[in-house]
């Protein structure tokens, strides 16, 4: 036993004596075929040694009763000086310049991950004595300002010993938000932090084995991680989690991470019954169209959500009333009927009369409505022509043109602003010219 009075150490221990090759062979890993192991790439030990040597953070590695002594020597390569790493005096291909983008906590992460993978992991945050133990690997890391910061914020980096989980199933875990001030986004994979973004707000922290990571053990695709989390929440959110997301994720300018998920893509016909319980007797309103449904919101309890979530709810629960996700064939328009004024009735009568006199057939009913999009004058849907009330303030020509355009949509099935519709209208115009003047193309 070595007495180190005046120094404090973080102890990371596991069963089994570490093989010196685990510190020397870059890419040497026996864990790639293990679904449960955290380690994968076979580079973590080497990067950690390089990082701590370069940063001047003291550490000691014991394999059973023997110490694996780490040292360096100067080498020159193409006029540049390097610090080559030696293990028990044996030269390696490692230098202290490895892992230039790693932070101190990542080194602790590597040794903790290895300890968990090997079994009988034991972490002691503070000890003053260095001791060997037969049959075990012990790594001591000297307390340093950055090491102490990791220890003091342990749950931010490691979730495997957190006991405040809300969901804990093989598919993943959900934890309450620890950062009550910034509410920053924090993701773990198998209990190890793999993503942190202080600028992005999130309602919860998540630990999912499905997250894909790169060799630095951070998520390789942040969009993919969001999709993985969305799929998980659609199936496994509790009623309380669902209610919190519905109440808070889409409100105002909060811009929570959960609010921007592809809920419809992953949740249509897949939202669990816990979501239905969370909705209760509330109506659902698409936030983008909420101004159009003030009357409905004044008469009912409601959740204002994203269009994605509104569509997911409508696709999952037929008994829930959903407003604002579109009534037209493209799913983009919403409208409500309005009572026709005498002016509207007069102008409609004249418009229909003009069409009859010019032998233009309009065989669909016409309904005056108010659209949620102010620039919309008309819409064709379900064998009905819908015309905006404000169109009548633009004059008779605008009313007739709107009726004709929507009539052609219904007759042909061509979409608005499409090349097919343009071609069709020009053909109609040319045919009329041919027949009027007896000149045929």
Count of alpha/pi helices: 13
Instruction: Label the overall shape.
Output: elongated
**Poorly predicted segments:** 27-42
Strand order of the largest sheet: 4-3-10-2-8
Overall number of strands = 22
> Helix content range of the residues, please?
25-40%
- Distance separating the two termini: 104 Å
Structural class: alpha+beta
Average of pLDDT: 86
Topology:
Elements lengths: L1 E2 L5 E7 L28 H12 L3 E5 L2 E3 L1 E8 L2 E8 L2 E6 L8 H15 L3 E6 L1 E2 L5 E7 L2 H8 L1 H4 L9 E3 L2 E5 L7 E6 L2 E10 L2 E4 L14 H15 L2 H10 L14 H5 L5 H7 L3 E4 L7 H6 L2 E4 L1 H10 L5 E2 L11 E3 L4 H16 L8 E6 L6 E4 L2 E5 L7 H17 L6 H19 L4
Parallel strand pairs: 13-15, 16-17, 16-18, 20-22
Antiparallel strand pairs: 1-9, 2-8, 2-10, 3-4, 3-10, 5-6, 6-7, 11-12, 12-15, 13-14, 19-20, 21-22
